[in-house]
């Protein structure tokens, strides 16, 4: 099914274009060595990934602050593994993680091909709940910043997806119309429901192959984007 009359394509960044899981794992591997943390990385990630997911969910709902997210996800993970670290050490790891995360620049499979294909046909934009100081660096270091005409972050908007204000701000910056725009993202609530409620078309990027959502356009590999656009 091809979407007609589309002029602007809005992307989420993490888990949609930027390979968050791989880049995050490489960052932890580096900062653990840097700080002499002797822990099995795979066991740590097994605990950390769902903890981090839950913290981000609560952050979207304004239940935790940015600072609490950064600190709490590490503290909870180390405690679950019975690995004792002082608050000072956890704070150092939290800062190092943010400092070095954008140094890794792996994209998800098909991401670059999708951007090359779409950039010849549409105006491209980013809408992200990620932090200002990190998201721009990620795109710059991954050599994809030049593909996007506008970037809207939740910190800039003052609200997070799926709040309509962030979509309103992004479309205003892009000088785009909802009916002629499409949102592509991996988070069903934030990206798909949020964008659809504001009148945008949507394409659900099924990053984890959940395949549980009906009646929405979806794909699990960005190489297949030409099916819809």
Q: Termini, distance in Å?
A: 9 Å
CATH architecture identity of the largest domain: 3-Layer(aba) Sandwich
Class inferred from helices and paired strands: alpha/beta
How many helix segments?
A: 9
| Average of the residue pLDDT scores | 95
Rg over CA atoms, rounded to whole Å, is 18 Å
Strand content: 5-15%
Q: State the major sheet.
A: 6 strands, parallel
Low-confidence regions: none
State the CATH topology of the largest domain: Rossmann fold
CATH top level of the largest domain? Alpha Beta
Strand order of the largest sheet: 3-2-1-4-5-6
User: What is the fourth-level CATH superfamily of the largest domain?
Assistant: HAD superfamily/HAD-like
Helicity, as a percent range: 40-55%
What is the β-strand count?
A: 6
Order of helices and strands: EHHHHHEHEHHEHEE
**Molecular shape:** elongated
Structural domains: how many: 2
Written account of the structure:
With 229 residues, the chain is α/β, with parallel strands linked by helices. The protein has 2 domains: 8-18 and 107-227, Rossmann fold (3-Layer(aba) Sandwich), CATH 3.40.50; 20-101, Putative phosphatase, domain 2 (DNA polymerase, domain 1), CATH 1.10.150. The protein has helices at 20-34, 41-60, 66-80, 87-101, 111-119, 132-141, 154-157, 164-174, 188-197; strands spanning 8-11, 123-128, 150-153, 181-185, 201-205, 218-219. It has a 6-stranded parallel beta sheet with strand order 3-2-1-4-5-6, with helices on both faces. Helix 1 (20-34) crosses helix 4 (87-101) and helix 3 (66-80) crosses helix 4. The longest helix is centred in the N-terminal third of the chain and has 20 residues, at 41-60. The radius of gyration is 18 Å and the shape is elongated. It starts with 7 loop residues before the first strand and ends in a 10-residue tail after the last strand. The model has no long low-confidence stretch (mean pLDDT 95).
């Amino acid at each position: 099914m091809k979407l007609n009359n589309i002029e602007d394509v809005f992307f989420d960044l993490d888990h949609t274009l930027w390979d968050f899981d791989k880049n995050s794992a490489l960052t932890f591997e580096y900062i653990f060595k840097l700080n002499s943390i002797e822990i099995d990385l795979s066991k740590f990630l097994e605990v950390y990934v769902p903890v981090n997911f839950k913290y981000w969910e609560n952050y979207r709902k304004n239940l935790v602050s940015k600072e609490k997210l950064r600190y709490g996800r590490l503290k909870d993970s180390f405690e679950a593994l019975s690995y004792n670290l002082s608050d000072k050490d956890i704070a150092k790891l939290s800062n190092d993680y943010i400092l070095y995360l954008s140094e890794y620049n792996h994209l998800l499979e098909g991401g670059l091909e999708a951007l090359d294909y779409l950039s010849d046909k549409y105006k491209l934009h980013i809408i992200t709940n990620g932090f200002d100081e990190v998201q721009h660096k990620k795109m710059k270091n991954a050599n994809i910043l030049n593909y996007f005409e506008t970037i809207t972050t939740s910190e800039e908007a003052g609200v997070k997806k799926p709040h309509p204000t962030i979509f309103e701000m992004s479309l205003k910056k892009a000088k785009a119309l909802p009916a002629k725009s499409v949102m592509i993202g991996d988070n069903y609530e934030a990206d798909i429901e949020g964008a659809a409620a504001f009148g945008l078309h949507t394409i659900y990027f099924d990053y984890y192959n959940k395949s549980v959502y009906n009646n929405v356009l979806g794909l699990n590999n960005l190489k297949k984007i030409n099916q819809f656009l």
